[in-house]
Structure formats: C-alpha cells, structure tokens
Amino acid sequence: MIDPHERFWEDLLLLVEESRVIPVIGPDLVTVYDDGVDLPIGRWIARRLQQVLDLPVAGLPERFQLNDVVSLHLSTGGDREELYPRIFSIVRNAALSPCELLSDLASISRFNLYVSLTCDSLLADALAAAHPGSRADQISYAPNALRDMTCSKAELTRPLVFHLLGRASCSPEFVICDEDLLEFVHAMQDKQRQPAFLFDELRRHHLLFLGCGFQDWLTRFFIRAVRSVELSQKRRRWEVLVDDRIQNEADLTFFLKNYSHETRVVPITAHAFVSELTRRWRELHPVDAHDPPQSSRIPDTVHVPQGAIFISYASENIGAAERLASGLQAAGLDVWFDKAALHAGDDWAHMIRQGVERCSLFAPVISHEALSERNHRRYFWREWNYAHDIASGMSRDETFIVPIVIDDTRIDVADALPDTFKRSQAMRLSGGTLTSESANRLVELVRDFHRRQQAT
Which of 283, 317, 345 is the last residue in one of the domains? Predict the structure, then answer.
C-alpha cells in the first residue's frame, strides 16, 4: 500500500495528461441521493427492489445489497428472470442525475475510455453534461452477446463508456447477483467470448480502479485477466486500486506486495481520491476566461488518418496552409490541418500528439511571421515540439519532418527551431503553392512510409 504523496500525484497526472490512463468505475463511486443520504447505486437499487417485491426487511442483512435481495426473492420461490425488467424499470423511471464526483471525473478531458462496473447510465450522463454537443457512446458486454470496441482508443471520436458487467435492460444481460457475476467472469476467460479490442486497450494502458469494492479473488482475477501475463512479470503499467477497505484484506495486500509490484494500493476512499485528483487537475488546467465556451469548441476528438500529412501553421499563415492542403489533396494525398485555426485548446493536446504520431509526414509552415518573437508562445509550437520528439527517436535516414518555407526564411540559422527541423530538407513553396516537382517528392515519401508500415 502507498500513501498518495506528491511524487505519486505528479506521476499520475503526467500519465493522465498523455491519455495513458483508463478509469474503471465501481459501484462505490456512483451514488444516488435518497432520503437525505448518498447511497451507492447498488445499495439504492437493492432498497427499491426490496420495496417493489415487498420482501420483509427482517430477512435481510442490516446493510443489504442487491445480491441479498435477489437471494431472498429466490428463497421464497420467486423467479430470477422477472427481476431484470423490474430493475430496468427502477433505474429508467427514477430520473437520476449524476453525482458530483462523476461530474468531476467527467470534466477531466484526457479520459476518453471508461470501464463501468454498474448497470446505470449516470457516467454517460455526466460526460454529456461536461461536453455539450458530444454524447458519450456506450457498449454493454454480455456473455451470450459479444459486443466490443470497433476502433482503438486513439481513434475514438467521442467518449466511450464500456459496461463490462452489462447495462440495465429487460433482458438478463447484466449482473444482479453473485451467480451472474460468476458467469460474466467465466466468459471473460474464454478468448472466443472476451471483448478482445477492449482488453487490448486495458493491457496497453495504466488502470485506475475507483470504488470497485472487489472481493479478494475477483481483484486477483481481474488484474491477471487484463495483463495477459503472470502478475510477477513486469509490464511497466500501473494498476492503481483506490479503496479504503482494502487495507483490511491482509491476504490480498500481502499477495499484491509480493507478486504484483506494479499494482499501487491507495487506502483512501474513492470519493476523497477523485476530489483530490480533480482539484490538482484544475490547478494545472484552469479555465481561461478568454477561452471560447465549450459549445463553440470542436465537439469531437482530433482524428488524423493513418499516414496523412500533418500541416501545422501559425494562424497568420492560414492562406498558405490552405493552398498547400489543396495542392496535396489534388496530388491524391491525405491531409490534416486545423482549418478553423482554433487548435482546440490545451484540453486537446494529447489528441494532437496522437495525430502527429499517426501521420506519415509532418509539414510545418515556416515564415518570418511564424518565427517572430510575438509568436514564441503560440499553440503550434506544441505541435512542432511533439514532431521534434518523435523525429528524435527515428533513424536519420527516415524522412518525417518536411519544413514548408513560404518566404525567404533560412531555417538553418533560425535559433527558435528544433535541431530536427534545421537538418531536414526543406521545400521552398512561395505562398504555399505546391509545385509538381515537390508533389512528386511528397508522394514518394508517403509511399515509403506505407512500405515501412507493411514491413513491420
């Protein structure tokens, strides 16, 4: 177990910044305000179902859960199949609103894939409220109806909530009792029934388990399932378990300490953790009074087609950038550039980086205006520095950065430019007008990129 000290928070926030973290949202984090108190969603459903079925409270534990109500119903001769539509009606007709913590979590824009372990849609509602004009997608897994992601996390165009234990419906395709849970867990071990694309993303990212309340055996299973390798093998990915009750699980904490060194157990409540995470995130990303309102910003994530030419420019050079893009498209090449020149704000920096990573060539439009001192803190420098970082990790004989010089600027003596830009072979295209010679050269470079991709 660890205390969430400053170094932990710094590391976690850096990972979140790079969109390398997937939150796993458990039932303890999703609460409903009822009779003056906040109840976890599972407990709230249990109370409502007990009332609908008119079951005696005396036959239930003091803090009964949904499984307790289902078990009592079955013990009195009830039919389990009838409970699924009952629960669906309870959830659908209650007109629930997301709790404050879900809204806080949804406001962290670097998260775009969430795994939900509850059957409600409150997280999706929180995301819709946090990002007006961009309703979150939802996918619901079921052992007898395999549903999976249709693209990678990097290619998502809006937030996605994946209900790993099903979502409430009239059909028995969501978990309401321990037997359901066992069947879902069993199905996930079967490669033929496992949501492969989701599990691939879980293996590639750091995981943040918030208020999951897993039992000992389920914690061990889930971590092992998403890793695909023995827990003792290093994979350089964290699983952060946030649960104040886990410190009472002596056997589990001993096991994780000795066999799962990359699992971080944070023994505080999920509520306290999310509050602190959100506070620190907002300190790093304050809302700028001069920013356009959310509704006027680009509603979806940046999507750069694999192998496109990424055009990056200062807003003063938008005319040249548009002429360059038109010429490239006429040559049959895929192009991406921010036509609105909004650059989508800091909240989208990680998406821009992913776009730079996906492109075949990075084409910065260079001019005296772009390199002027007044532009030294403009957004396009972030794109240029991303490209420099990527090019620095490549062989020098591989062309990635192709500076497009639209005036008489000399890039070899431009102190502001990164070294990878200076040593690249620039194209001088007056006003951004593409020549046939330059077009042929770029077509050849893009073909080289695709040949390398096919060889890997």
Answer: 283
